[in-house]
Structures are given as C-alpha cells and as structure tokens.
Amino acid sequence: VKAAQPGAAQHDHALRLIAERTAKVVVVGQGYVGLPVAVRAAEAGYGVVGFDTDEAKIAMLQQGTSHVGDVGVAALAAALAGGYRASAEPADVHDFDIAVITVPTPLRDGAPDLSHVEHAGTMLADHLRPGAVVILESTTYPGTTTELLAPVLEHGSGLIRGVDFLLGYSPERIDPGNPKFDFRTTPKVVSGIDEASLAAVRAFYDTLVDTTVPLGNTAEAELVKLLENTFRHVNIALVNEIAMFARDLGVDVWRAIDAADTKPFGFMRFTPGPGVGGHCLPIDPSYLAWEVQRRLGRTMRFVEAANAVNHEMPHYVVDRISALLARHGTAVAGARILLLGLAYKRATGDWRESPSVPVAELLATAGASVQFTDPYVVPATAAQLPFRLVEWSPDAMRAADLVVVLVDHPEFEPAILADAARLIFDTKGIMRATTFCGEVL
Ligand SMILES: NC(=O)c1ccc[n+]([C@@H]2O[C@H](COP(=O)([O-])OP(=O)(O)OC[C@H]3O[C@@H](n4cnc5c(N)ncnc54)[C@H](O)[C@@H]3O)[C@@H](O)[C@H]2O)c1
Q1: pLDDT above 70 covers what percent of the chain?
Q2: Is 2 a residue whose pLDDT tops 70?
Q3: Nearest CA to ligand 1 atom 5
Q4: Residue 189 host element (H or E)
Q5: 99 CA distance to ligand 1 centroid (A)?
Q6: CA–CA separation, 95 vs 51, rounded Å?
Q7: Does residue 151 have a cis peptide bond before it, meaning omega lies within 30 degrees of 0?
Q8: Which tens digit of pLDDT belongs to each residue from 358-387?
Q9: Taking the CA of residue 320 as centre, how many other CA atoms within 13 Å lie in the half-sphere pointing to its CB?
Q10: 154 pLDDT higher than 50
Q11: Hey, whose CA ends up nearest to atom 24 of ligand 1?
Q12: What is the pLDDT of residue 161?
C-alpha cells in the first residue's frame, strides 16, 4: 500500500509513538550489539521484539540466559518481565514501528559481506508500513544505507524512502567490559537520509541514551565508525612497531609510554600487545580500504601498514618466547606452555579474531604443548579449538614450563603469577612492577 502522506506526516507519526513509548520496536540480530539495544529499549518502556535467526540463541534468551557480558542476568530477567520478547519467528516482526538492524558484517575473501544486512532488509520489507522507521547499526562502508539497504526495503515493500518510511544509520560504540562507559552514557551518533528521518532516529535514541550526536547524512555516520576503529587499529600498530624497535635499540618502551602519557594534550595512550582482534579490528578498517579501492582505485596505505604490523605481532611474540625459553635451557618443542587469555581484550569472553589463537597455533606448530586458561570464556564457545581450556588456577600455572600473558584480565594478579609460574612472558606489561622470572614484551 502506498501512503499518500509526505515524509513530514510520517515523522510526526513516529515522534508521537516515540513520545508515548507505544512504538513497537524490533531489533534484528540479538548478538553483542543487538541484545543491549533491545534490553535498553525495553527498559525505556517500549514493547520490543529481539529477533534472531539463531534458534538456539533465542531459546537461551527466552530462558533468561544472557550470552553477552554487558547484559546481566538481572537486566535480561527484568526485560523479559517487561516489554522484551526474544523470537526466531519472522512473523513476530509484523507491525513494527521502529526496526534496528544489528546483524554481522564480516569479510568474505577480503571483501565486505553484506548478505546478513540484505537478508534483514528483505525480511523487514515484508512488514514495512507507512510511517515506520528503519535504522541500520551494523558497521559498514559509507553509502550502505542509501545504496544497499534503501533499495532492498523499497523493492520488497513497494514503499518509498523519505516519503513513506524513514531511514537512518547509527553506529554502535559498545565497548565490552568498559567499567566507565556503558550503552546509556556513551554519546551516540545518529543520522537520517533526510531531516524527517534524522528527527525520528534522534528522538528514538534520545529515549535510550544520555547524549545523541546528530549528522544529516548517513554516509558521514557510517564513516564515523570506520574512522574511530581505523584510528585505533593504526595507533595500536604504531605502538607495536615502536615496541619492537625500542627493544632492539635497548630502550624500555613501557616507561617511555608512561612518561608520554603525562602530556595533558596531544597524546593518547596505546600499549603494545600480541596483535589485534575482536569483531571490529582488523575488519572495520578493511571495509574502509575496500571501499576506497573500489570507488577510487586507491590504496589506503595506513590500513595496509597497520595490518602488516599487527599481523606480524603473533610471530614476534613466538620468536621472543623461543629466545626466552632457549635462555632458560628449554626448547619450544616439547615445552608445556599455558596461555593466559583467549579473549581479544580485557574483561570479556569474546575471542572472535583474537590474536591469542594464532599465537597458540604458531607455538603448537613449533612442537609446544599448548593450553589456554581464561576466566571469561565459556568453555562451550571454544569447543572447536584444538587447544584445551583449563580452569584458571595457580596449580595450572605450576604445571607449565612457561606462562604467557596474552590478555590483561583483572584476575591475572601479578603477585599470584610471580608466585606460581616458573617462567613468564608478559605481552601486556602487567608484571612490570613485580619481581618475577621472565620478561615483558
Ligand atoms: N561486538 C562489538 O563490540 C561491536 C561494536 C560495534 C559494532 N559492531 C557491529 O555490529 C554488528 C553486529 O555485531 P555483533 O558483535 O553484535 O555480532 P553477533 O554475531 O554477536 O550478533 C549478530 C547476530 O545477528 C544474527 N543474525 C544474522 N543474520 C541475521 C538475520 N538475517 N536476521 C536476524 N538475525 C541475524 C546472528 O545469529 C547473531 O546472533 C556488526 O556489524 C559489528 O561490526 C560490533
């Protein structure tokens, strides 16, 4: 059915439903990003359907089990008792007023794979009504909302963007395990394909977060996310490269970083480590580099250089481990090595793209007997790995020839490590203030 109303009337309609909290909200994808959005929307008073094609995940959520560290059991229980419902049934999406898309955007053979966004758009198009608002949150290259999602929605519904339905993009800034900023207190960039869309998208997020940052152009908002993550990727690579050279120059990079960090302006602290991981790095910068190559035929040199340095880090870590073991009269082949931390970062159990995995693989290839310990990783999620995940304990460390710190989880207390481990290689600098046997990256 085509609406006769212009976009402004649609936007008045959406604003009224938002103000009254009577808008039916659908969040497509109930992962690390989608679940917090859905739970927060329920908390704000909306009726929310959290839709996901993964039936096992939905069954877990329906039983009150959260797979996302930042959404506690109590918050999920409160949401389930309130307006939130988890569903794997596309029909439950019907009659939505606001849809938020939070599906994966991985790389396939080095190129963006937007098939999940297309599927989500196709499904939403079947249920799209005049006056509805669709918001993309998945990370993607500039142009996706208008060039890919909008046509899918229009084609499937027969409705017209900006006339019949409103459309926007809002990048996610969730930082798993961050004790200072959560979904609500992190400013949220919001955008729309036109003024009416922006007003509706902004009004919606104003009911979920403390601060919204409006942009009148979805491509700019898409670039924001890639800029933020490319910035992180490049700076991590920079400090990793400096760390490798500093060591060869005989300079303590960690003390230099600490001192640089006393500068109150113009410097931001990044520390070396075994590489980058998580869903965002190094994938997001590659989305940007891919789009630059495709549209402009140019190479993003910073992304290439950062990729090269960060990919090198697991090899560098293993070389340093070999040298350390050799100095202590042991070879990597046959050594029992316990890796502390499978997750890609502190205080999270998410180990997607974690650099801990290539470190383990390289050590195993060199003949070491490798085990992991990580108090945050749910063992079932790592069952497909060819490495044993043992319980975090001093005894596990005592049984190893070498303990390697790959993640700075708060549980990995330096005094406990120094006491229990025979030899330590610390890639995160957590042992620096402690007397121990071993060395820091
Ligand atoms: N995890 C983060 O910290 C983070 C931060 C910022 C942005 N992002 C971005 O957010 C997006 C989602 O990431 P995530 O970490 O939540 O991923 P995720 O894998 O945890 O969750 C995505 C969910 O979408 C579901 N899904 C896939 N196709 C679907 C479909 N057609 N319909 C319904 N559900 C579908 C999957 O089953 C999965 O449960 C990605 O674009 C990612 O780059 C992630």
Answers
A1: 99
A2: no
A3: 174
A4: strand 188-192
A5: 15
A6: 14
A7: no
A8: 999 999 999 999 999 999 998 988 999 999
A9: 23
A10: yes
A11: 29
A12: 97
Choose, from 280, 339, 402, 421, the residue flagged as catalytic: 280
Q: How confident is the model at residue 174 (pLDDT cuts 50, 70, 90)?
A: confident
Look at the block and give the residue holding tokens 């960090």: 261
Taking CA atoms, 374 is separated from 3, 28, 422, in Å, by: 55, 30, 19
Strand residue runs (E) in 329-422: 336-340, 369-373, 388-390, 402-405
Ligand 1 atom nearest the C-alpha of 137 is 10
In terms of residues, how long is the chain? 441
Residue 280: active-site member: yes
- Sequence-ordered strand ranges (E) for 317-423: 336-340, 369-373, 388-390, 402-405
User: Which residue's CA is the closest to the ligand 1 atom numbered 30?
Assistant: 120
Cα separation, 15 vs 83, in Å, equals 19
* pTM flag (> 0.85): yes
Distance 236 CA to ligand 1 centre (A): 24
The rounded Å distance from CA 104 to ligand 1 centre is: 4
Ligand 1 cavity residues, CB under 6 Å: 28-34, 51-54, 57, 102-105, 116, 119-120, 138-139, 172, 174, 176, 279-280
Tell me, in angstroms, the distance from the centre of ligand 1 to residue 32's CA. 7
Instruction: Determine the pLDDT at residue 6.
Output: 53
Cβ(54)–Cβ(88) under 8 Å? yes
Q: What ligand 1 atom has the least distance to the C-alpha of 140? A: 41
Alpha helices in 94-188 (DSSP H): 115-127, 144, 150-157
